[in-house]
Amino acid sequence: MGVVSLFQIVPAGSITSPKGFQAGGLHCGLKKTSRNDLGAIYCEVPATAAAVYTTNVFQAAPLKVTRESIASNNGQLRAVVVNSGNANACTGRQGEADAYAMRAAAADAFRLAADEVAVASTGVIGELLPMDRVAHGITGLPAALAVGDEGADQFAQAILTTDLVKKESCVTITVDGHEVTIGGAAKGSGMIHPNMATMLAFVTTDAAISPKALQSLLGETTDVTFNMITVDGDTSTNDMLIAMASGLAGNTELAPGHPDWDSFAAAFRYVCQTLAQAIARDGEGATRLVEVTVNGAVTDLSAQAIAKTVIGSSLVKSAVFGADANWGRIIAAVGRAGEPVNPDTVDIQLGDILVLSGSQPVAFDEEEALEYLKGDTVVIHVELHNGPGHATAWGCDLTYDYVRINAAYRT
After folding, report:
1. pLDDT of 94-148, one tens digit each?
2. Helix (H, G, I), strand (E, B) or coil at 374
3. By CB atoms within 10 Å of each CB, which of 22, 38, 120, 342 scores lowest?
4. Residues at the annotated binding site?
5. How high does pLDDT run on average in the chain?
6. Integer CA distances (angstroms), 284 to 53, 79, 200, 402, 407, in order
7. Are residues 8 and 172 in contact, defined by beta-carbon separation less than 8 angstroms?
8. Domain final position from 222, 255, 281
9. How far apart, in whole angstroms, are the C-alpha atoms of residue 332 and residue 256?
10. Residue 1 has pLDDT above 50, yes or no
């Protein structure tokens, strides 16, 4: 285990590490390959639940169903069923009926009430779900569940689309003298942009926490993690982040004001941030993770807007791919973010290499910069000297492979 602040990283941990949770996945025929395309997370007790959703106007049918489940069941869930390979988005009344049918089938399979089940889908937009395959697959999910690594791995594989790797994170923390575990799994590789993206993420914990506190924490955390990543500037129709808390750790109920609230919130944020970074690193065709930190903005919100603009710039992303220390693209992005900036006080660094000071060019070693930009992770520091605001955003470089992957997405 590695130690960060007051929580411990569990390298082999997953969404099944918190007490009360099982997961699993299987292949039901939605994907052309034999890879898993249907998965479930199951909690042995009613779990406090919270969710955030895409801001895209065209929201897929599963989002409506999940909202309804959480709202009608006093903020609790027992299971989440997820399919990949088909988004069930922009599919009209039939798509909505299919999402409800998925929920009903899962409720029958797990012997739950319908509003104890959430539904999520990801994949191609505009195609109806082959419900015969989905319904048959759901009947096999209870038998596919497992508490340990195997169940979590099968679930993580089931939610992938163009992703190259599964994305998981887990930490433990002490609350009221009890060990509390937080685990997470996510998918996302393309159609990724702030205000949610083509991503599904799931966070589980065995902490006891009030529904209001969990929803508030989830929203605040999303703003500085999942809403601070971009791959290609597109925001999808299906994005959803669900958190579930079993309460089996034995702590007194967490809420702001609890002595361990700040530590728990930091641990929760760490899980979400590592999942968000993993999505950015696995961007379609990407070869490098790019991190942009902005300091000295007038406010944190202003810093966020500037960081998002820089990380989303196709010219900046292309320069990173080409290992070109073209700081002009960075300062141009800063200047078009629509936020207050003093044009005479901006500093820019590529890692530890200062390339701009007081908005004036600085002599630097081009070969050193070239080697730095060839690295696995590129960090761009922007110092505005204009206030206390700070933010960090994550993205990736823009490569030839991104075009290749998306030019043939449906074929």
Report:
1. 999 999 999 999 999 999 999 999 999 988 888 999 999 999 999 999 999 988 7
2. coil
3. 342
4. 161, 187, 198, 284, 406, 411
5. 89
6. 22, 30, 16, 5, 12
7. yes
8. 281
9. 41
10. no
Residue 220, domain extent: 2-281
Quote the pLDDT of residue 190: 43
**Choosing from 162, 198, 221, 309, which is the catalytic residue?**
198
Q: Nearest CA to 199 among 126, 116, 282, 127?
A: 282
Stronger pLDDT, 279 or 221, i.e. the higher one: 221
Residue 134 tokens read as 């989905």
Closest-CA residue to 289 (of 365, 220, 202, 351):
351
Sign of CA dihedral 351, 227, 98, 50: positive
**Total domain count for the chain?**
2
Give me the phi and psi of 22, to 5 degrees please: -130, 160
Q: What is the pLDDT of residues 370-392, one digit of tens each?
A: 999 999 999 999 999 999 999 99
Q: What is the dihedral of CA 215, 165, 118, 249, to 10 degrees?
A: -60
Helix residue ranges, H only, 227-385 = 261-281, 300-312, 314-321, 327-335, 366-373
Asked if residue 219 and residue 316 are part of one domain, the reply reads: no
CA 38, CA 296: separation in Å to the nearest integer? 46
What pLDDT, on a 0 to 100 scale, did the predictor assign at position 3?
45
228, 301 Cβ separation under 8 angstroms: no
The annotation places the binding site for substrate at 161, 187, 198, 284, 406, 411
CATH of the domain at 277: 3.60.70.12
Question: Is 198 labeled as catalytic in the residue annotation?
Answer: yes
CA dihedral 128, 161, 137, 243 (to 10 degrees): -100
